[in-house]
Amino acid sequence: MNALSIIIKREYLSRIKKKSFVVLTILMPLLMAALVFVPLLLSNIKDSETKRIAVIDNTGRYASHLKSFDHYTFEIVGGNQEDNLKTKVGKDLFGILEITGDLTENSAAATFVSEKQVPLDLQGYINNTLSEIVKSDKINLLAQKADIGTQVMVDIRHVIETSGNIKVTTLRWSEDGSEKETSTDIAAAVGGIFTFIMYLFILMYGTMVMQGVVEEKSNRIVEVMISSVRPFDLMMGKIIGIGLTGITQLFIWFGIFAIILGLKNTLFPAADIQNISSQLGNIQMLFSINWIEIIIYFLLLFIGGYLIYASLFAMFGAAVDNAQDTQQFVMPITLIFMFSFYVGIYSLQNPDGPLAFWCSMIPLTSPIVMMVRIPFEIPLWEKILSIVILYVSIFFVVKFAAKIYRVGILMYGKKPTIKELIKWFSYK
Question: Helix, strand, coil % (nearest 5) of the chain?
Fold first, then answer.
């Protein structure tokens, strides 16, 4: 077994055996699943307490339209009881809705008095109900002024009540002439989720490479290792070993989510699953996504992006004596990486735009931006060109980082500048 494979094995096994790795690997997908499903389940739990709302309608035109629903009860009372009712707010009554005038003339004539903040569902129901009444009154007023017949008004009301938003069905046409229903929202969600995972893992494990290099250099361990191992093997062994740790964690997470999805009927009642599915949208649209292509390109882009950024992080870690000194070098790279993430978010709206296209060809931004664009079925030549440019760039970036790593790993007591790093590259 050569030195490179020994270092890879050491870096990989030393990290997956840590308790922090095991805890994070198990808890993170469970926490993410809880963040999705628990709020949906809790939203279905209704308040058992019935809230009484007194309605004082000085006009006599609106109160009868407010019907009790769920755990809210509307009770019509006279205006002469207002002072007595206010003493009951927060006790027997949840609140008082008072309408003092014609809402078609004064939209602020309705007030709601309560001890607690008004729930959104109650506020929305009252606003919508009163708005519909006002709209109906204004239509009747216009009909009277224009002398429109009763039947015409009935037809107009029918059009208003039955009209809805038009939703265009999107179909993807393939070269063999077949058509498949698609969803832009699903494509954007898939691209966004995979992009976020890639952004998180490249940044997290790239930083881990830099911290490992700095730790070995500050503890002088590297001086012993460098006597029997080439600097290039030492750098690449650390990068590949930590990268394999990230890929292992990814596969474990995907496996846990697959198990949770397979046990959904056991973990959640059928009624709840039906309600959750309706809230999450048409799950069948997920089958319009080419998952094999998504996963293949995700792995290719993740490996390529990780190798580039991890090489740069290892180079910077070797050039300094402690973690604090890395900030001057890491900040520009981190800003570029964050820029690629924001470009990726923008690309969800316009995946074929010039900014999205060119950033998906630049090696430092292509892993993030291209991952967003792939679910939108971009041309094959763009995907291949992006991958080729990325992997060709890896060769030059790794070669550049290895030369600086070779010199910097044994340099102590001085903070190098960018000019000095370039000078180190010219050393033979």
Answer: 70, 10, 25
Exposure string for 285-294, b = 16+ CB within 10 A, e = fewer: beebbeeeeb
- Residue-wise pLDDT for 337-379, tens only, equals 889 988 888 888 888 888 989 999 999 999 999 988 888 888 8
* Structure confidence by residue, pLDDT tens digits, 90-141: 777 888 888 888 888 887 888 888 877 888 888 888 888 888 888 888 877 7
Segment 140-148 long-range contacts (CB within 8 Å, at least 24 positions apart): 141/104
CA 19 to chain centre: 28
Question: Cα separation of 263 and 131, whole Å?
Answer: 45
What residue type is assigned to position 305 of the chain? G
Q: Provide the CA 117 distance to its chain's centre, in angstroms.
A: 30
Q: How do beta strands 95-99 and 51-57 pair?
A: parallel
Beta bridge partners of 29: none
CA atoms of 320 and 253, how far apart (whole Å):
35
192 CB-side CA count, 13 A? 12
414: alpha, beta or left, given left = phi > 0 and alpha = psi -120 to 50? Answer: beta
Rg over CA atoms, the chain = 32
Classified as helix, coil or strand, 283 is helix
CA 132-138-144 angle, 5° bins: 135
87, 115 Cβ separation under 8 angstroms: no
10 Å Cβ neighbour count for 358? Answer: 13
Q: Which of 198, 197, 185 is nearest to 283 (CA)?
A: 185
Enumerate the β-bridge partners of residue 53.
Answer: 74, 95
- The Cα 66–Cα 73 span in angstroms is 9
